[in-house]
UniProtKB/TrEMBL annotation:
Pfam families the UniProt entry points to: Exo_endo_phos
GO molecular function, one term: catalytic activity
Boundaries of every Endonuclease/exonuclease/phosphatase domain copy: 7-195
Top-level division of the source organism's lineage: Eukaryota
SUPFAM superfamilies in UniProt: DNase I-like
Protein name, per record: Endonuclease/exonuclease/phosphatase domain-containing protein
Organism encoding this protein: Artemia franciscana (Brine shrimp)
């Protein structure tokens, strides 16, 4: 399947599931009018900021190391994630989303401040790291807050089909927690990934930004390049 047809298929899925913002690892997307800026941090983190009617929506998309990865690799990942998080204004709607490769489990005793009653499975080392990060930054793990059948909680199935885990997560700043209406997985969606599509519903309204004259793309009269002298001077300047 060509890259174009893959993109078209995912766009159809977004329309079908009424998705405004889709975070996918290893896939590039164009920035739309509501996006204010986006910054690739490294191969595991990307930051994007969107305009809303009241404040700004800041989203960090993550792809964390696996639970079996070296501790140094995990520490480096969370150090970078923490550095990005601390620079985001406190009044922004902050969301951290993606493949965190972390099981936070169904028992919230480890960190009741950030975990709800409806996780899946048992917490692992990566889950503890994620919970500690959430606690340090006053975030909550959205997928544990809403009661769903287990089939709508897991986000990844092993290649042999024998193991199902909830390792993709949606974290949101506690002060905006009441704006989060639901988080659940959708098995029927094809996101060109071995993970299930996880959708979070947030009650905020995105708004397009008016483009100033400086934002508009500058147009050039390329017909002038037909003149040999102008073309030569242009090449020298370039």
């Amino acid at each position: 399947m060509s890259q174009l047809s893959k993109t078209e298929q995912v766009l159809r899925e977004m329309k079908q599931y009424n998705i405004d913002i889709l975070a996918l690892s290893e896939i590039r997307w164009k920035a739309y009018l509501t996006m204010l800026k986006w910054t690739p941090i490294n191969e595991r983190n990307l930051f994007a900021q969107f305009a809303t009617t009241h404040t700004k929506l800041s989203v960090i998309v993550c792809y964390a190391p696996t639970n079996e990865a070296d501790d140094d690799v995990k520490d480096s990942f969370y150090e970078t994630l923490q550095a990005v998080t601390k620079d985001i204004p406190k009044h922004d709607v902050l969301c951290v989303v993606g493949d965190l490769n972390a099981k936070v489990g169904a028992d919230r005793k480890y960190c009741p401040e950030v975990l709800g009653l409806h996780g899946l499975g048992q917490i692992n080392k990566n889950g503890a790291l994620l919970a500690d990060f959430a606690l340090s930054n006053d975030l909550v793990v959205g997928g544990t807050l809403f009661e769903h059948k287990n089939v709508h909680k897991y986000t990844w199935t092993s290649p042999d089909g024998s193991t199902r885990n909830q390792i993709d997560h949606f974290l949101i700043a506690r002060r905006w927690c009441t704006s989060l209406l639901d988080v659940r997985g959708y098995r029927g969606a094809d996101a060109q990934s071995d993970h299930m599509l996880m959708i979070a519903h947030i009650q905020i309204k995105l708004c397009a930004q008016k483009k100033t004259q400086q934002d508009l793309k500058k147009l050039y009269n390329t017909d002038k390049l037909q003149d040999q002298k102008i073309r030569r001077d242009f090449c020298i300047s370039l």
